Amino acid sequence: MFDSKQMEWLNQLSAEDLAILGAGFNTLGDFFDFLALIKAKQETPKDKKGKNNR
After folding, report:
1. Distance separating alpha carbons of residues 9 and 5, to the nearest angstrom
2. In sequence order, what DSSP letters do the residues of 22-49 get, joined into one string?
3. What is the pLDDT of residue 46?
4. How many alpha carbons fall within 13 Å on the CB side of residue 19?
5. What letter does residue 4 receive in the DSSP assignment?
6. Which residue in 47, 28, 29 sits closest to 39, CA to CA?
7. In CA terms, which of 19, 39, 40, 49 is 20 to 30 Å from 30?
8. Which residues contact 42 (CB under 8 A, 6 or more apart)?
9. Distance between CA 52 and CA 17 in Å, rounded?
10. For residue range 6-41, what is the model confidence (pLDDT) as tens digits?
11. DSSP state of 13
12. pTM metric for this prediction
């Protein structure tokens, strides 16, 4: 799965570093969820019907 160079880099990260990375990815996911909600509100019912027919 990982080569030796990647494992060396991973082993240099502390638990705190990994927690910070995880929180960052979680925040990024929440941001994209928010953008999806905004996009869904902007679409008209006609737009939604057209996408379902594809």
Report:
1. 6
2. HHHHHHHHHHHHHHHHHHHHHS-HHHHH
3. 72
4. 3
5. H
6. 47
7. 49
8. none
9. 42
10. 888 889 999 999 999 999 999 999 999 999 999 999
11. S
12. 0.61
